[in-house]
Each structure stands twice: as C-alpha cells, then as structure tokens.
Amino acid sequence: MLEVEHLYRSYRGIPAIEDVSFQVAPGEVVGFLGPNGAGKSTTVKIITGMLRPNEGRVLFEGNDIEKDMVAFRAKFGYVPEEAHLYTYLSGLEYLQLVGRLRGLGEALIEAKATRLLKLLNLESWQYSPISTYSKGMRQRVLIAASLLHDPKLLIFDEPLSGLDVVSGRLFKDLLELLAAQGKAVLYISHVLEVVEQVCNRVIVIAKGRVLADARPADLTKLMSLPNLESVFSQLVQQQDTRRLAEQMVEVMQIGHS
Amino acid sequence: MHELIEKLIARLPLDFRVLYRQFLLRVIDLEALSIQGDVPAFIGQFAGVLIMLSLIHATVTYLGYTFITEPAERFAFLWHMQHYLIATMMLVVGMFAVLSWDATFPDKRDVMVLSPLPVAARTILIAKVSANAAVLGLAILTLNVASGVVMPLIMGAQPGPALGPFQSLPAWCFSIVAAGLFLYGSVLTVQGFTALLLPRRMFLRLSAVLQLAAFGLFLCVYFVQPSITTAAAMAAPENQWVLACSPSYWFWGMFNQLNGSLPPQFAWIALRAWMGLALAIAGAASSLLLCYLHTMKRTVEEPDLVPGGGLRWMPSFGSTLQTAVAHFSIRSLARSRQHRVAFAFYLAFVLGIALSLLRAEVAAAAPRPLSMDFLIPTFLMMFFAVVGLRNVFSLPVSLTANWVLRTAQIRPSQDYVAATRRSLQLLAVVPAWLISAALAFGFRSVSQVAAHLAVLALFGTILVELCLVGFYKVPFTCSYLPGKTNIQFAFWGFVVVLIVVLVPCAEFEMRALNQADRYGFMFSLLVGLAAGLFAYNDHQAKSAVIYFEEAPDELITTLGLSA
Question: Which of A86, A134, A135 to probe by mutation at the B interface, max B CB count within 10 Å?
Fold first, then answer.
C-alpha cells in the first residue's frame, strides 16, 4: 500500500535522511524507530506531503503521491508528535473543522465527532476550549481527528504521549483492530515495549539511514538479545547514559558544593 | 546623563528590572500588530504618529488664534480647542487601555511561571504598574509635545491666570495627566472589581466583552458628544446633562479652574473632575492590591478543567470548505485577543465614521437629500472594513497548528480562494453594507439611496477581489510577518490613493444618481470590473499553491532569545 523508495533529503546541504526505503502493507502495523535526530520526522513529513524529498519517491497504492497529492491526502490520517492544535477551539469545533476540511457532510461530522468524543471520554469537555485540555486529552482529540474520515493509511507519531494507562491500552487495542480492518499503520514511538507488542514489523533508522527492517522477534533472535530495547541500543550505539547522568550532576553542583 | 540614569537603574532590584523589561514589551499586544517584528521600531512609529498629531493640533491652534480677531469668537475657538485636545488625549488613553487590556493584572501565565520563583507579588505588581505607566506616559507626552506647549502659552496671554504662562503650563500639564489617569484608573477599577466579584472563568469571558464595550464607549463619546464652546451654551439647560456626564468637559473645567479662567458658575464641572480623579485612583489602587492578594491565589486554586457551554450553533456559509473557513475566521476573530484587537483598530475607523453620520442624522429634523456627505463616508467604511479584515487575515493565529490544514487539503486551490472570498464578504462587506443601509434611512429619495447601496455593494465586491490578488492563503494561517513587510505602507498607501480618487468618483456618482443613462454606464462598468477581477483571481487560483510558510523550509526556527 505505502512504498517509500530511496528518499533523500538535506537541509542546507546536510543530509537528514539518505536512501530511506520501506513498505507498509494493508493490515500491517509497522514500527518506525530511531533516536532523536535520526530522520524520523523528516521521513514522516515527506510521507504526509508537508516536505518534498530531494530524491526518491513515495508510492501509495502504486501511484506516486506527488502526482496527485490531493487524492493521497484524502486517504491518510495523521497524529503528529506534538499536539499542536488551534487551542481556542473546543474539541468538538476542532473535529468539525477537520471534518469539513475533509469534505464530510454536516450530519456525518456531527454523528462521528460526538461519538468519537464520547468513546474517548471527552464528552463532558467537548465544548471547552482545547487550551484547557491536558496533554492526554489533546492527544485523544488528535486520534479522533485522524479517524474521522475512515482513512486507509494511518500515521501515528508518538500517539501515546501524555495518555494515561487506560487510554494507552485502548490505543493498543485500537491498533490491532485497525490492522484487522486492513488499514496500513505506520507507528513511530520511543516506547519500545509497546512497539514490541503491537507491531508486525519494525524499521530502525539512525543518522538518516535504515539500519534494520524486520519482525521484532526476528531481530531479537538474530542479535541474540533479550528484547527490542537491547536491540535498539545496540543498533544505534547510544552514548553511555550513566556517564552522561554523572556529568549532569557535576554541572548542577558547580558553585554550590 | 545617560550614565546617571544607568546608575539609578542599576540601584533597582534585579528581579524588578527583569520583570519590568518583560512586562514593558507585553503592555500592548505588539505581537498582534507586529508579529516578530521590530518592537522598538514599532513603538517609534507609534510615537511618531502622535507627535505628528500634536504638531497639527499646535499649528491649528496657533493659526486659529492668530486669524480669528473677534474676541468672543476667539475665546470660543480656544475653549473648543481645549476641549478637543483633552477629549482627543482621553481617546488615545482609552485606546491604550483597550490595547493593553488585562496587562496590569496577573494572568495565568504569570502565576504559573512566577509563583514557583522567589519573586514577591508586590514586585510583580510594581513592575507591571511601572511598565504600563511608562508606555502611558510616552503616549501622553508625545501627544502633547507641541500642542501641550502652544495652548498653555496662548492661554497664559489671556485674562485669567495671575502668573500668565507660568500658571497655564503647569495647569495644562496637570489637567492632561489627571484626565489620562482618570480614564485609565476607571478602566482598571472596573476590570479589577469585576475580577474580584465574579468567578474567574466568568470574568475571563466577560473581560472580552468589556474590552469591546469600552472600545465602543470611548469612540461613541468622542464622536457623538456635542461641542459646547460658549458660556451661554454651557448655561443652557439642554446642555447640562452633557456637562454632567462627559469627563472631557470635567477636565476642561479642571484646567480652567487651575488656570484661573473658569467662570465661577461652572466650578461644579471642575469639582466632578476632582472627585472622579480621586475615585478612579482609589478604585484602581485598591482593586490592584486586592487582585494581587487574592487573584493569584484563586488562579492557582481554580480547577484546570471545567465543562464548557455557550453558543454551539453556527449557520452554514456555502460548501463545507467555505463553512469551515468562515467558522474558523469568526472563531479566530472572536477568541484570539491579538486578532480581535488588531481588527478593532480598523473597526474604529468604521465605527467613528458611522457615529459621525449618526450624529448628523440625529441632529437633522427631517430626511435630507442624498449628498456627498453620505456617499464618501459609506465608501470609506467599506474600505476600512474590507482592507482591515484582509490585513488581519494575514496575521497567523498558530503556525504550529497549520499541519492539519496542510494534511487535509483535499480540494483544489481555487476552492480555498473562494472560501477566503466568502469570509471577506461575510465578515466585512455585509456588515459595512448593512450599517450603511441602516444609516441611509435619513436620506431621500429612496430610489437614489437604493441605487447608491447597489454601487456600494459592487465597490465592496471589487475591494474583496483586489484584496485576493496574490492572496493564496487560508485566513490566519500564513506566517506573514507584518513587522518585517510593507503591510502598513501598503495599507496607508491604499488610504492615500483612495482619498485622492474617492472625491471625484463620488462626485461622478452623485451626478449619475440624477441621470439614468450615466448611472447605467457607471453600474455596468463596475459590474464588468468586478467580474473581470473575479475571473482573473479564479484563473490564477487554479494554478496557485496555497501556502502556509513565508520562510523557506531550510531555515531553522529560532527561539528569539538573543538580545
């Protein structure tokens, strides 16, 4: 369904991603992992059409999205990493805005928005401005907005950020059901435990390049490591966190010891 | 001198200096008028406009005093100018109070950021009051830099002040400052006690209504109150209520009392100024103190989330996209303080013109024949409404939230341009036209009025199309940086061109209203122009890309924290 082919994008000559390729099939939940600055956001921005690649292309259902971006936009839902919303709108008004922008009829918007808000436990706050919402509530509004138009492809960038335990479990169940419905899901997260549970496949990216693309179980088996977190640490060669923490404490104590 | 000031400033506590500087830039919603623009340059422009106004006032006062030789007429002129200068100064202070609404009181941001820090509430209070006083003082000083010298010097040469200009000058300065303090203090008193008496959430909602009400009140009083310039007119029974209710006359009385030129029978007017000043200062001081003692605590204690209510229904305005953009525009204007204030700046012109017309209409005993006095103001109202709204549309409301519009852009660009067109028509053309139609009731003949209203509607349509040329954006979503662009020059350039073109055009229309064939020609021409512009915009929009960012993607967004 979604095919990312040899993407290359640079900022002021500095490459952010190089030769990034992967696929997401219908009914598949694919985890997209990487440390900060690895190129995840750049890749997602290109897939969502907010950024154009210097090289490479993105195909959706076999068609280059650049050739008909309008048609592609109608088919995907997106939850961004940061819950940036028009905070003076209420939750319901925000969903109405998104629904209308997506060309849904008024009756359909009303029916879907109110039901989604109720299911996401936002019914009591649907008329309150989003500026008063907690981070988790904003995240739930974003999830509702991404589902409003029954998209074929869903891109979730850190969707569990700020969600409480119950909402987190709900979301994991939702992912499974979406996959069962034949939706393609690209799931970006740092919570590797959840990724390991819900994703059919994981793609690990670091320094702009894809380092691994396999099933979580295959990765742990291949690298003889106990879990995905160990695999991830091994792959991206993270710094010695203990040493970093010690240095931070040293800085904190300067002038106060 | 500079070093002395630096030394004096250095003696102030560091936390006060830091907060004062921070609050100084927040006194007026400069972001609303100059997002990421050069704030000192903007303040310079603001001061420049007031200085220019003061020079014009001084010149008019001096020329009037010189050329009017008949003593009674000259005295009436001076009384009129005194009152006009005081009223204008109060209007400027009033506008400042509207623009700096809520700036003196602690808001949630202050409470949440400053409460965990070792900063006393009194330091926050003093820093806020000092910042407001600094900007208010700058406004009063610049507005009186020339007229505030010329008027007292002239009055010092008149019978009355025992010490001549040495009495007139301090009397004028004191009266002007007192008038400003009275008005600003009154606003603070109303705000403060409303905040204290009402639950915080209700206050926040009412505060926006109060802000607009104050804005309307100041303009109404300035434009509608009659000018009373002779002792006989002041003594007339029908004018007593004006003198009793109008603060600008009270402070006119205060100046003349201090100057020794107030006839004794009008001492009661000056007494009102003294009483009003005392009440405003006491009210502002007590409400500020109480707010800082109680409101900060209440702000922390208030629940983070309370179920909301209010008006939930809004009509449809065409297609789903047109409705989405229209609702988004209405809600942004209504709920974003920055945008509300920026639009209010342009609406002030519309309201001022409308009130001037209303005043003339109320004064007229019978319906009047349609004249240029009606045609030109209605064109001006339409112009300020449309071009003002177009300028406000350029101010982004939340750039980071624009991703939703970008990822949900599933229709061609021309649909977006059409939706923006609909919003401009709905929020600018229709209200300006309705106000004009309401004011037209005092004019005859009905057929001429109807013919003019048809021309006005076409004028509005043409303005909307002109505003849409090259404007391939959704309202409030593009990072157009007015502080760094020529938007203000473009606006005032438009005004100059309009003033030059409007008078001959209105004259032509006036003649055309009396000749059917000429009117037909003019109307056809306007329809053709509107249709041509519509077709041009529609054609251009087909190949246009709706854009949300002025800056190229490669630029790294800075936090703007450097000095």
Answer: A86
Task: Please give the full DSSP string across A110-165, using - where no structure is assigned.
Answer: HHHHHHHHHHTT-GGGTTSBGGGS-HHHHHHHHHHHHHTT--SEEEEESTTTT--H
Quote the pTM value. Answer: 0.77
In 10 A of CB B163, how many CB atoms? 13
Inter-chain contact A100–B553, Cβ cutoff 8 Å? no
Q: What pLDDT shows up at residue B309?
A: 60
Strand partners, A188: A32, A157
Residue of A nearest to B415 (CA): A101
Q: Tell me which chain A residue has its CA closest to the CA of residue B302.
A: A132
Nearest to A129 among B308, B400, B405 (CB): B308
**Among B524, B546, B203, which residue's Cα sits nearest to residue B407?**
B546
Question: Of A148-162, B357-371, B373-387, which range is least confident?
Answer: B357-371
pLDDT tens-digit readout, B300-334: 666 555 566 655 678 889 899 999 999 999 999 88
Structural domain tally of chain A? 2
Q: A-chain residues within 8 Å CB-CB of B331?
A: 88-89, 93
- Say if residue A142 is in the same domain as residue A158: no
Question: Of residues B480 and A222, which shows the higher confidence score?
Answer: A222
Query: Which amino acid belongs to residue A134?
Result: S
Residue B81 has a CB neighbour count (10 Å cut-off) of: 21
- B507: its two tokens: 């004259």
Same domain, A198 and A218: yes
A124 contacts in chain B (CB < 8 Å) = 307
ipTM summary value: 0.81
Note whether A228 and A165 are same-domain residues: yes
